[in-house]
Amino acid sequence: MTQTFRTAILGASGYTGAELVRLIATHPHLKISALTANSKAGQAMASVFPQCVGMDLPDLIRIEDLDPASIDIAFCALPHATTQEVVSALPRDLKIVDLSADFRLRDPAAYEAWYGRPHGALDLQDEAVYGLTEFYREQIAGARLVAGTGCNAATVMYGVLPLLAAGVVEPDEISVALMAGVSGAGRSAKEGLLHTEVSEGVHPYSITGHRHVAEFEQEFSKVAGRPVTCSFMPHLMPMNRGILATIHVRGEASAIHAALAERYSAEPFVHVLPLGEAPSTRHVRGSNLCRIGVVPDRVPGRVYVFSTLDNLMKGASGQAVQNANLMLGLEESAGLTLAPVFP
Amino acid sequence: MTQTFRTAILGASGYTGAELVRLIATHPHLKISALTANSKAGQAMASVFPQCVGMDLPDLIRIEDLDPASIDIAFCALPHATTQEVVSALPRDLKIVDLSADFRLRDPAAYEAWYGRPHGALDLQDEAVYGLTEFYREQIAGARLVAGTGCNAATVMYGVLPLLAAGVVEPDEISVALMAGVSGAGRSAKEGLLHTEVSEGVHPYSITGHRHVAEFEQEFSKVAGRPVTCSFMPHLMPMNRGILATIHVRGEASAIHAALAERYSAEPFVHVLPLGEAPSTRHVRGSNLCRIGVVPDRVPGRVYVFSTLDNLMKGASGQAVQNANLMLGLEESAGLTLAPVFP
Amino acid sequence: MTQTFRTAILGASGYTGAELVRLIATHPHLKISALTANSKAGQAMASVFPQCVGMDLPDLIRIEDLDPASIDIAFCALPHATTQEVVSALPRDLKIVDLSADFRLRDPAAYEAWYGRPHGALDLQDEAVYGLTEFYREQIAGARLVAGTGCNAATVMYGVLPLLAAGVVEPDEISVALMAGVSGAGRSAKEGLLHTEVSEGVHPYSITGHRHVAEFEQEFSKVAGRPVTCSFMPHLMPMNRGILATIHVRGEASAIHAALAERYSAEPFVHVLPLGEAPSTRHVRGSNLCRIGVVPDRVPGRVYVFSTLDNLMKGASGQAVQNANLMLGLEESAGLTLAPVFP
Amino acid sequence: MTQTFRTAILGASGYTGAELVRLIATHPHLKISALTANSKAGQAMASVFPQCVGMDLPDLIRIEDLDPASIDIAFCALPHATTQEVVSALPRDLKIVDLSADFRLRDPAAYEAWYGRPHGALDLQDEAVYGLTEFYREQIAGARLVAGTGCNAATVMYGVLPLLAAGVVEPDEISVALMAGVSGAGRSAKEGLLHTEVSEGVHPYSITGHRHVAEFEQEFSKVAGRPVTCSFMPHLMPMNRGILATIHVRGEASAIHAALAERYSAEPFVHVLPLGEAPSTRHVRGSNLCRIGVVPDRVPGRVYVFSTLDNLMKGASGQAVQNANLMLGLEESAGLTLAPVFP
What we know:
4 copies of one chain form a homotetramer. By secondary structure, chain A is an alpha/beta fold. Chain A is 31% helix and 20% strand. Chain A contains 11 helices and 14 strands. The first copy, chain A, has helices at residues 15-25, 45-48, 82-89, 108-115, 122-127, 133-141, 151-166, 195-198, 212-224, 253-263, 313-327, and strands at residues 5-10, 30-36, 60-61, 73-76, 95-98, 129-130, 145-147, 175-180, 203-204, 231-236, 243-250, 270-272, 290-296, 302-309. In chain A, helix 1 (15-25) packs across helix 11 and helix 7 (151-166) packs across helix 10. The longest helix of chain A is centred in the middle third of the chain and has 16 residues, at 151-166. Chains A and D meet through strand 8, strand 9, strand 10, strand 11 and strand 14 of A and strand 8, strand 9, strand 10, strand 11 and strand 14 of D.
């Protein structure tokens, strides 16, 4: 008999919340029991996200009105800082998959440096397991609190971590140019995210340092066994979904390709293309897939690694469901076998 | 025990073929046994459509190399005219869901007038059932050959047929301005479909008469019990997926809304919004849904009906799977409960 | 010797203000002497609109700090309501081209009905000349205060006014489906204008009645000599610039085409295409052109008229410069001969 | 008295040809006397490019029907290889600005290696001056035949050449990630350039080596006084116009900024932003401007240089007009002061 877990989405009025609703709609073992969004409390989800018309969903409530005893697992899609407070107030035995930045960084000083305020829930930070599924699978399966990764960070880490682990690239010469769809910036109304300001053009953003760097440098250093810094420049794309990381490294192409291919050979959601082929964001759109390509540079001794995923899926909500599946003892790919939507 | 039907897609190198692959990938009772595409025969599907990397799919073959005995049902996604020849050559007991225009028009003279050549398989035309599921459900369930509707035609018909049936609009005063995403024009390389020629602008197309008019006037006339002609002007949108029909009619808004709401009250894939609300194409994207809105015009006695769907889904491949489900005795919504992808 | 007029732009931090800057940059007789934007006062124009880097422009000031004696003409690109107050406070001999809705409607009751508040400067309303250049040319040349038209209204009026004047269409059966680029909604940060919410989709807006209707019904009724109401449904396009009005009328195509062709035969900025051809928004982008096409409907007795222009140009700032040229005794097309930007 | 030069555009049916028409339309000293396009000969330019409706332009003719004696200067916007033949057949005293790749490379072996065929007009190659205006101004002024640069190459060279000249970067550690609008690929109908294939996604292209590399490595090596190779990865953007080169170098940010600022301080079309600021493609759209920004990397000793321009303008047709102005003894900026078009 099929077991069903009662699920809450905290912060359901943003794009990652809506994407969770989309995924759970066809998930065989999760059902949505509660949706919170304090600024929209009392409204139907379909009035906040009209794509939900016709779905059988509870109305949005204030988080204070959530009964934790009525749910088995919560996805928390709230802004950082708010998240600390909310999660602190929830029962310590409630399983939580967090999508914010609040529990990603192990070093409180790093959190304070990048987020501009001291961390307010260090015990939770200690408890949290980093949510990069393919690298923390066993810990996630046993975790109560999982900290979802940054979407840009995930894209970069899938391309780089196996290379550092295998020692096939020079750790001090990794340079990433990343191209990110605009949904990663969320749904809040900002001039810089208007259609008129984003479409038909491209520009770099967060040029003095993107917060996701803190995450992947933490993981790079852990794997490399010594501090690793990384050049990283993100660009805002005139598109909604998808991230492409173009990772320029020093190493040898076939060794790099072999390290990636071997590392992910058994992974259902990470594909390594044949050597010499490059992926496109549009061919993973709407899916939980990450695609990686390796292409030799014309310049000897240098190689391009391309990593791409859908920021709302493998970079956020798809990853969150994958982790929830592990935490609940379900098949890891349950509800996540959706094929890419192209065109 | 779950039964699985062996499925062939004839003409798998176009967008409707690829969308069928996407749908069948998560369909509980269909599996892909053969893919044909004569111009790409011998290639892997993933080399023609890179979103298919990692899917377990047969290579593309020539249609001549298909063994009909090895399949239970065929989706035919070939161009019109070619379709007649191909279907004529297939066994007469093979279940076929056709997505072309070849078997939609009951009147051979209408076919010749709109398609510029005589129909070459009138016996098949006689046999074919029109694939507008909600209006031909029982016939489809018993059919061997189903003729999928035009995507624009389906969008218009969902908004209009119940109004003619209920007699709540003036049949001679229906004016449709339709806005269609560019994927409806297919994947062939034409100057007019280049990104540079389509993006950041809008223009009407098929201004002397769009072929889908033949279909919906056929159905309108049948329901109205007398000839109905309809003003219809399609526009090419700078977007990939989705159709919106803005249908201007003479009638009374609440009666019109009531007729639609009642007609579709039990339909899983056709939603009628509350009176006074209008749908958006982006909120049905990637789903098999059709959404309909009714809004009173400021001008007394006139009403706007908005109908929207995803041309590759409810307008083509989703509809085809829905019809296949009926033909195979499966649950009608099997494999089609995918929620809309937004943003 | 070339005369140069000192120009102020009031409300320079919006898109129509920026477009005025673009036009005046290459205008032979206008130079920018002052730019106001109260919320951005003290900033360089290039920090508000980076495309202005390198232009020789004054910094933004508060409108209170403008010295009217130092300018010869002002373009006022402020929101309605604010505009009344600002223009009331300016000297009564300062030439003003207003781009807001405040002085477009001759009937104070209509203003109150559509804008939800009584008009506060009826003497200015009396003085103002409506800025549809080709129909008010002589009055504009002698005017002190010109009220620029709504961008959607202009698009519709260019297609319809000559038809009512010539009596070649049925005034009670005009139905307009309009498709508008998102820059017409301005630069304020609203959720509904985000890239994620606008791109890759289409939906109708202002479905209970768009304010521009008040304008064109005013002008239609004046020309027709009796009240004319008009069905009008605008749609928000996933594009930045451009408006297409698809105008469905009852009449005879060749008479309609002849009326338009004759009316605009001497107009430099309004082109009528050969009968049977339709225009595209992208082919007038960035120019001051309006293009009109006439196509017979398949349904006898009905005709499609298509009118297109760039909402920031002929629909707003280009029109404003054209009117300023008349008011200053300059050649009407001065600074406005920019060719369309395509692709 | 104003002199007017009779101008021919050879290959006027492509986007660079059309952009030349746009520029010459408002150029004070050039007028179009002939337009050639063999595949479209006999047609009006407005039927090939509807944006030209209403312009006073000659019909398209075959190049064989061009009378060279009737023109003062020719812009040649033909494909490479064809260009060699065409230019060889023209009189040796006709001034020519070529936009193809045929005369850019000084080394015939390099041409053969990158373009897959021997060069067929080495005398013309010897005669040709490379068209990067700011670096070859005097030679261009005296040249008969100027070889326009590649659009991607120009973008990169503006950011890098002054750095190599000043010796402020490590020549062997230049890594360029470039993002290019799709109009750079021209107007030919290819599957990969369809709206459905380009919009809402991003991918690298020419991954085994882009031909423009040959150009900028030639110029880099010349300036550096020794061979320079450069890592270069272009990406196809879902936008029509604009190129952004994100150039990662080893050096010191303030020295790099100073070298660029000084080099371009007197240049009308190349702007260097204040240190720490980055440009956007959309703010140079439609203009002849190149904007450059310098931003320190977080990683010590590394710096980002961003260079952006409109590929059809400063990257092709705007550059060509700038060079023609020099060749004809006109003011260099004549006809090129158009402000950027945003949004």
